[in-house]
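job 3f2a | input accepted
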Amino acid sequence: MILFEREYILSSSACDEISGEIVRFCEKQHADGKDVIRYRLSAEESLLNWMDKGCEGRHVCLKLGQRLFSPYMIIEMDGTPVDPEMERSENLGEYCNIILISLNQKPKYSYFNGRNSLFYQIRKKSMSQFQVLCIVAALSILAGVAGNLLIPEGLRRMLLDTIISPVYDTFFDILGCIAGPMIFLSVAWGIYGIGDVETLGSIGRTMILSFLKYVSCATVVCAVFFPVFGNSFSNGSNQVSQVRAVLEMILGIFPSDILEPFASGNTLQIIFLAVVIGTALLFMQKQTREVAMIIGQINALVNFLMSLISHLVPFIIFMVMLSLIWSGDLVVISSVWKFMGVFLVALFFIASAYLLITSAYQKVKPSILIRKCLPAFLVALTSASSAAAFGTNVETCEKQYGIDASLVSFGVPLGIVVHKPSSSVYNLIIVMYFASVYHVQCTPVWLLLAVFLCIVLSVAVPPIPGGGAAVYTILFLQMGIPEAALAVALTLDIITDFAITAFDTLTLQMALINVSSKLGRIDKNKLCI
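job 3f2a | predicted structure (529 res):
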């Protein structure tokens, strides 16, 4: 729905008028003050770039509106195609530009039917996830206690069996339906994007390999927490059976047909197909560019659908908590304190390792690194948003650490997607925790598979609303954890997302320092001050 539309003749005065309308619209939509300034500056920069490229005097149209209660703005210009951010787009590459668009850090440019178009998605200031969780928890406890006191047991049981259970079962079925295609598209599109990264030569290769190495090492090391929850390997697991199990796991990667993995939810086969197709697209870039663009567009569509589904999570959490109270089955959350304790220990262990290794390798005091990384860390910790911390993250890497600006502009958006050691470790710990709660039979191969999936899924899933739900759906299905654990995992995800985002931001900065030093693209004098 378009709320405002006006035509202008591109000029300096028109830029001022458009900026004023954007600010007024954003303030009416209750956007954050910093975001309002960023939207205004981004629009002004794009309009001035159009003027610098000889477009002064063309017709420009500003459209402000809402789609599904989400505000947006569009700036259109008649005439031949002129991308106002062409130079920046070419320097970053298409893949990183898509990441920046998804993080709401830059507009999406398109050209259709003789009109240049810049699309901006505006973020409204809203209640934090933690506040929503507190309200939902309070309401569910209130409803649960009131129900136990006022509603007969037979009626409560009927409500659970006929309304509550079918509703959240349907929700998880929808999640399972979308999660498989989402992982497939994310992995295939991500591999295709490596070709874009390769345009930067050794820089792109070094950065991606370093990120993957850091994530893998952190996840493998944190597998030592496996016995903390009381887990143990099943009896009778001899070497011969374990070798056979490893072989069966490897051979089981190959699907019997292309649709069967999605029908059965076989995560390994889905990832295998995505890797094969993504690699084929990468090697046949010119011949298959249209196919790759279709995959990219479907990927964006599926991500959008997942973000819509994520809005239902608070209602599902309410239903599940109410169900746990009415059924008296609170054993699922009785030992959550142990999970949270182990998770926090693992986070501090990973962060300390990153800081100490970077300190030793760069010959800089840990206190200096902590002081410099603190601003971005605190923004991420209080907002649970990589997008909110993006500006501070970039500024810190450039001005405080002395990392080359071109490397920062490429490495930060790429790292937000690829470098997520805290996310990977969290997924592993929550799998091990629920394995103990539900007495899942564990073997060395089971743990090996869990580590592998946590690494792949942390890299494959984009940082979008609902991404965590897709990870848990696939991970739990593959690891034999009951569906009932999903709702508890979604609840814990809201609480722990603040710490995960903050520590991923901190470790990304340390990783970028080491990579830029390896490439000789850092000012050591700035770093050590």
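job 3f2a | The first helix runs from residue 12 to 28.
job 3f2a | closed
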